């Protein structure tokens, strides 16, 4: 925004810290460039919290507010049986309640932009993230609602930012998308905002991976690459050929199903917590039967270690018979 001529910018965060701390890892700007940047702290999930922030902005003597970019987000993953109302509320509060509070507090203003940072998960799905997917779908609905009221709004369903964001250090691949650079993401956002009349108020900005073959999705970051997936798959297969360790072999099976990059990190993980539901357990059981010619009931197994113990027992009984 600064590079495109914005003179005044207010960054609102729930976490406290000096302006230098907030900006140091994200901006390569001079003190002169940052002269019009203000960092404020508050809770935008309520109308009162948003009104308080808007009141502070007015007290700074800044020009009238011209745009809102809502980027709040938090994860609280869990499979459907473990998806509690608390997990729903944690995700919903900042993203959806915050978006509605911002809409209600600014609907009387002549905004050039009202941008909602959504996620491609609500279109593509993501294991263990029903709450997050629902929250992002709500942002798309809010953008539609604002348009029916004659107000500006753009909901961008982002794919995976590779260098920043919540999934930067994620141990597993994100279903359906490949990561893209920060520079490319910013260029894409600029393109969307400049052409919002042509593109529409709801758009998915993602590099689709080979997981997605449907033709009805038209992303605005195109040219997906499968190189990353092929490298991971080949590496796993090479490891599996070298490994005699049954535990690591089963871990590789699970890693492929759940799209984790490092199978060794899954050994002691609770399978339900990392996204393995009942249908996946049936699939895993079938894979084990095919590979080891052993019948193993994995429906109640909590970890890979539990599965391996059951498999060892089944293999021993098969050998004895």
Automatic annotation (TrEMBL):
Q: Which UniProt keywords apply?
A: Phosphopantetheine, Phosphoprotein
According to the entry, every stretch annotated as the Carrier domain falls at 244-318
InterPro entries xref list: ACP-like_sf (IPR036736), KR_dom (IPR057326), NAD(P)-bd_dom_sf (IPR036291), PKS_KR (IPR013968), PKS_NRPS_Biosynth_Enz (IPR050091), PKS_PP-bd (IPR020806), PP-bd_ACP (IPR009081)
- Superkingdom of source: Eukaryota
Single Gene Ontology MF annotation: fatty acid synthase activity
Q: Per the UniProt entry, what is one GO biological process?
A: fatty acid biosynthetic process
> PANTHER family, alphabetically?
FATTY ACID SYNTHASE (PTHR43775), SI:DKEY-61P9.11 (PTHR43775:SF37)
The name this protein goes by in its record = Putative inactive phenolphthiocerol synthesis polyketide synthase type I Pks1
Which species expresses this protein natively?
Folsomia candida
């Amino acid at each position: 925004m600064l590079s495109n001529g914005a003179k005044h910018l207010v960054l609102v965060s729930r976490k406290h810290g000096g302006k230098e701390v907030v900006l140091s890892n994200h901006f390569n700007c001079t003190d002169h460039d940052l002269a019009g940047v203000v960092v404020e702290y508050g809770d935008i999930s309520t109308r009162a919290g948003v009104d308080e922030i808007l009141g502070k902005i007015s007290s700074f003597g800044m020009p009238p507010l011209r745009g809102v970019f809502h980027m709040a987000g938090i994860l609280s993953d869990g499979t459907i049986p473990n998806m509690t109302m608390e997990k729903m509320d944690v995700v919903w509060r900042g993203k959806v309640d915050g978006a509605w509070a911002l809409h209600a507090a600014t609907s009387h203003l002549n905004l050039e932009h009202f941008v909602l940072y959504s996620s491609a998960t609500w279109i593509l799905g993501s294991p263990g993230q029903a709450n997050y997917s629902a929250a992002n779908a709500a942002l798309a609905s809010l953008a539609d609602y604002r348009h029916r009221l004659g107000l500006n709004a753009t909901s961008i369903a982002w794919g995976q930012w590779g260098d920043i964001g919540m999934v930067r250090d994620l141990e597993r691949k994100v279903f359906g998308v490949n990561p893209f650079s920060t520079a490319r993401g910013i260029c894409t956002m600029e393109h969307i905002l400049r052409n919002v009349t042509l593109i529409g108020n709801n758009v998915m900005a993602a590099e689709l991976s080979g997981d997605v073959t449907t033709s009805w999705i038209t992303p605005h970051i195109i040219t997906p690459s499968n190189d990353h997936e092929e490298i991971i798959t080949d590496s796993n297969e090479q490891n599996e050929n070298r490994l005699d360790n049954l535990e690591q072999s089963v871990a590789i099976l699970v890693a492929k199903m759940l799209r984790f990059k490092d199978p060794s990190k899954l050994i002691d993980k609770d399978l339900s917590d990392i996204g393995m539901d009942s249908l996946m357990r049936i699939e895993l059981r079938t894979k084990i039967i095919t590979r080891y010619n052993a019948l193993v009931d994995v429906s109640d197994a909590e970890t890979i270690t539990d599965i391996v113990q059951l498999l060892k027992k089944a293999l021993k009984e098969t050998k004895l018979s």
